[in-house]
Structure formats: C-alpha cells, structure tokens
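Tokens as discussed.
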C-alpha cells in the first residue's frame, strides 16, 4: 500500500514537480491548489505537504483544529532560513524540507512524519488541538470552565470569583458557544484534554 501525501501549493509547476517526484518514490501524492480545496476532501490519513507561504502552516492548523482532527504537516520552501523553519514548527508543522532541493531530505521528512502517528503522538496532538480551542476563551471564561471541571455549582463558582450566579451562567453559555459544545460535559471533556489549569487555589468545597 502506498503512503499518502497531500500537496498544497498555489504554484502549478512546483506542485506538479513535487507530486511527480513523490509518485516515483512510491508515495502517492494528491495535489491541491489551496487549503480550502484540500479541506473539501478532508482525508482520514496521510501527511499534508504544504508550501510555506506567509502563515500557510498556521492557517492550515487553525482549520485542522476547528475540525477536531489531526494530520501531520510538513512544510517546504526553497532555501528556507532557520527562523522561518522555527516559525513553521511553532505554528504546527512537524517537519520541514527544501523544495526544489534535496529529494532525499524531503522523503526523510515525509517518512518520519508518517511514522509519527502512533498513540503517543496522536495523544499529544489531541491535547494541542484541545488547547487551541481553550485559547478562544477569555480569562474569566476559563476560570468558570475550571470550576465546572471541579463540579462546582454556578453559586459556588460565583462566590469564589466575586460575581453573581447569573453572570456565571452567562459565561457558561458564552464558553459553550465558543467551543461549539452542545453540553457542559463536552466542554469539560475538552478542558481535561487540554490540561486546563485547575480552579484557583482556595476554591470552595463542593457542597
């Protein structure tokens, strides 16, 4: 069975050249012109190879997070400077290669990425995706969510934070909407995956 690579590159010649090379190396490469075009297919497995245009990796990672899924991302560009590679990795890429450039380096990056889909990596990726969702919340909403994780009522959360139960209720509604959660249990599950900081020291005991 062939390994799968999904190549996202707006330059038709560069996209064609990299797909041709990969196919000859036994890696089935499917080309896409844009992130939006790729997202319409949304594969279940494989590695995404994306040309490192400005914020391309970050934009793709945001879309991946919004779908609560994960695929390894390898970025590439011609003669990338070290700061650019670091930025791509910080944005979510787990590999980087130069193209046009050394084909063996590109293959190594793809093979490594395909191999890093085991349970430990997947678990860490799920945590990162959950953290990206939690980052959408305000500081107060995170505090309320932490209280929810502890099983505190709106009244107890409000007493500890110095706000009314009605205000806590509004924060709960807002955070559920931001997280796309239908129920409190969905938000709590996401908070646990993200290792959300516990409710502030001195939180009231559950009545």
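Sequence:
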């Amino acid at each position: 069975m062939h390994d799968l690579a999904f190549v996202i590159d707006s330059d038709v010649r560069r996209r064609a050249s990299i797909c041709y090379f990969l196919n000859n190396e036994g890696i089935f490469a499917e080309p896409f012109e844009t992130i939006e075009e790729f997202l319409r297919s949304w594969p279940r497995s494989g590695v995404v190879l994306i040309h490192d245009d400005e914020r391309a990796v970050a934009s793709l990672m945001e879309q991946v997070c919004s779908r609560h899924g994960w695929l390894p991302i390898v970025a590439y560009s011609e003669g990338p400077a070290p700061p650019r590679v670091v930025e791509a990795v910080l944005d979510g890429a787990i590999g980087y290669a130069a193209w046009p450039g050394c084909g063996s380096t590109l293959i190594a990056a793809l093979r490594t990425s395909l191999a890093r889909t085991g349970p430990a990596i997947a678990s860490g990726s799920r945590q990162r995706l959950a953290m990206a969702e939690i980052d959408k919340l305000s500081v107060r909403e995170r505090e309320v969510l932490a209280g929810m994780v502890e099983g505190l009522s709106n009244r107890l959360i409000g007493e500890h934070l110095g706000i009314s139960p009605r205000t806590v209720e509004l924060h709960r509604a807002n955070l559920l909407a931001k997280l796309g959660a239908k129920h409190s249990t969905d938000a709590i599950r996401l908070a646990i995956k993200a290792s959300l900081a516990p409710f502030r020291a001195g939180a009231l005991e559950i009545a």
